[in-house]
Structures are given as C-alpha cells and as structure tokens.
Design goal:
Blueprint (H helix, E strand, L loop, with lengths): L1 E6 L4 H14 L3 E7 L19 E5 L5 H10 L4 E4 L6 H6 L1 H23 L11 E7 L24 H20 L3 E6 L1 E3 L8 H10 L4 E4 L5 E6 H14 L5 E4 L4 E3 H15 L15 E4 L14 H7 L7 H14 L1 H9 L1 H9 L4
Parallel strand pairs: 1-2, 1-4, 2-3, 4-5, 5-6, 6-10, 7-9, 8-12
Antiparallel strand pairs: 9-11
Helix pairs in contact: 1-7, 2-4, 4-5, 6-8, 8-10
Family: Belongs to the NAD(P)-dependent epimerase/dehydratase family. dTDP-glucose dehydratase subfamily.
Enzyme class: lyase
Keywords: Lyase, NAD
C-alpha cells in the first residue's frame, strides 16, 4: 500500500485532492494529512473520511522540524503532495512575514525531511519516492496583452508578498532538484473553484453575499482577468503528474477559462436566479444592484492566462469541466451544504476543532 503525505489537506484544494484520491484508489493507498488548522483549514471538509483505516490526520505546523521529521520516521512515506501555504493576497499585503514563514521556511522543512528520509548512502534516492510541490500561476506576474500565456519557461515576476513567497518556495524546490537530484516536480495552477472553498475567495464570497442580499465587492473596474479551473480537474492533474510526469519538471495546470472578475459575478447572479426556486425568499435578494465597485487592490495583476500545452502533450491531462458546468455544480454544492458555510463564516468550525486538538 503506497503512503501519501499530504500537507494542508484540510484546506480547499487539499481536501478535494484527498477525496479524489480515495474515490480513485480506495483501499490501495494510505493518506496522512498534516495540517496546522489555521483559519483556512477545516476538518469538516473531511468528516466523512475520518473513520477510514487508511486515513490519518496529524495536527502539525510544517515549520516545526521535529514534528515533520517524526512523521517521516514513523511512516514509510512514498509520496509527498505539498499544498500547505498561506494563499490569500489581501492577507499577504497586511502581514507578509506570515507568508514568508509558512510558504518559504515550511517548504524548506518539508524538503529536508523528505530528503533525509529518502536519501540512500550513495547519494541517490529510494526508487518510486516523489515530492510534488503545488504552486500558482501568480509567480509569473501579469499579462498585459490578449493572446499571451504563461508557459513553464516564462520568467518569474511576482507582484505581491504572496506570489513572491510562492516564487521563493518554487526556487527552493528547483534548487533541491538541481543540487541533490531530489525526486520532485512543481505544478503551477490557475485559479481554482469548487466545493469547500473558504468564503474569502471570490466565487464563494459572491455566492454567500448574494444569497444574503449583501454587497458584491468588485476591485477597480472589475476587468482583471483570471483563468478558472474546477478543483477536481486540478486534483486529477496532480495525480497524473506524480504518476506520469518526468522528474525535475514543472507542469502548468490551467483551465482555458479566462474571464473578467465582473463576468464571474454576473454569471453567478444569473445562475442563482435560475437555480433558486420561485418560493425561495432569497431569489428576490439576488440582483445586479448588489454589485459595488471598491478601491483596487495594491499591486493588482491585470491578467493571468496559463498554457497547459506541456501537461496535455506529455501526460494527457486536460481540463474536463467547462466553467458553465463547474459553476453550477459549485453553487449546487453550497446549496446542499449551507450548514458548512454558516459554520465557516461564524468561525464555529475553528472552536470545535481547537477544543478537540487543544491537548495534542
């Protein structure tokens, strides 16, 4: 049975990845989920898996060398999928140091722990042991012209403390691959959306606010462009890179779904109006009149567009979910999990798990 160590597995993409992997491999694998349970980590995302014999949760900070080394010492970890990171740009502008600590120092701790555990006396590494570092398209900076795309060879040009910290962690992984021939890959993905996404991010924020008749904030003129990728497609891509990707390579995972932020908001409004029953009082609240333009974010990148040509050609991955289908699936999920949203927005999910793990 192959053992996967997933960092940040209680977060949005990490929890979706764990669900995807158990759906695909069931009892053929074991997953160890290491998460610090910051505000973005929510074990309710994985509540239906917590009694599986082949799933283990460990509350730990990836910057804690002793805790991470202990995980490797006590388990024959063959795969590492490193999601754990501070990821919200606005938060990075207010407190950059937290992002440097988690994203840079935390990645170094993970690399060292895996290297120490996997390295053989002759300096090579155990066969079929692989480290995958999950990164972002934001490390590439901003595209100004239509028709331009980010490729794996695009020079890094980060513009926020968040993207700078992720670029730094990518460079560390590249350095370990070059210096030690450490068996790793890097993936850079576009904006994800789907179930379990924390409501400070655009799509769940707009869904939640619209259903309550609250303002729908739009930065600047709303014409900033992002490439949107349904989270399950991303999870599939990560798995395929670990199984079929060439070691030491970077693979861009993009959705081919470029849309302006204002377009996203209007699509969500339209979907909500169609999906809400006529007798649901929230239907009357959902309106374009809620759209409110606010001061633009500092250092706001104008356009992201990522080319997945390499991963398509080498591995056969492609984004399967059209945005129009993915957004309806996402809204339907939030309709079915209103208690989840209430617990997250109220902070109750944190209180419950803080008490549970307070003495560990």
């Amino acid at each position: 049975m192959r053992t996967y160590l997933v960092t940040g597995g209680a977060g949005f993409i990490g929890s979706n990845y764990i669900h995807y992997m158990f759906k695909k491999y069931d009892n053929e694998i074991k997953i160890i989920n290491v998460d610090k349970l910051t505000y973005a980590g929510n074990l309710e995302n994985l509540k239906d898996l917590e009694n599986r014999d082949n799933y283990t949760f460990i509350k730990a900070d990836i910057c804690d060398r002793d805790s991470i080394n202990k995980v490797f010492e006590q388990n024959d970890v063959q795969r590492v999928v490193h999601f754990a990171a501070e990821s919200h740009v606005d938060r990075s502008i207010k407190d950059p140091e937290v992002f440097v600590r988690s994203n840079v120092l935390g990645t170094m701790v993970m690399l060292n722990a895996a290297k120490d555990s996997w390295e053989l006396p002759d300096g090579t590494f155990k066969p079929d042991h692989k480290f995958l570092h999950v990164s972002t398209d934001e490390v590439y900076g901003s595209l100004e012209n239509e028709g331009e795309y980010f490729y794996e060879t695009t020079p890094y040009d980060p513009h926020s403390p968040y993207s700078a910290s992720k670029a730094s962690s990518d460079m560390l992984v590249k350095a370990y691959m070059d210096t030690y021939q450490f068996p790793a890959n890097i993936t850079n993905c576009s904006n994800n959306y789907g179930p379990y996404q924390f409501p400070e991010k655009l799509i769940p924020l707009i869904i939640n606010n619209a259903l309550q008749g609250k303002k729908l904030p739009v930065y600047g003129d709303g014409k900033n462009v992002r490439d949107w990728l349904y989270v399950e497609d991303h999870c599939k891509g990560i798995d395929m890179v670990q199984e079929k990707g060439r070691l030491f390579e970077t693979y861009n995972i993009g959705g081919h779904n470029e849309k302006q932020n204002i377009q996203i908001i209007k699509i969500i409004i339209e979907c909500l109006q169609k999906m809400l029953p006529d007798n649901d009082p929230r239907k009357a609240l959902v309106s374009d009149q809620l759209i409110t333009y606010v001061e633009d974010r500092k250092g706001h990148d104008r356009r992201y567009a990522i080319s997945p040509d390499k991963i398509k050609k080498e591995i056969g991955w492609y984004p399967e979910t059209k945005f129009e289908d993915g957004i309806r699936k996402t809204i339907a999920w939030f309709f079915d999990h209103e208690d989840w949203m209430k617990n997250v927005t109220s902070g109750d999910y944190q209180k419950y798990y803080e008490d549970m793990y307070s003495d560990r």
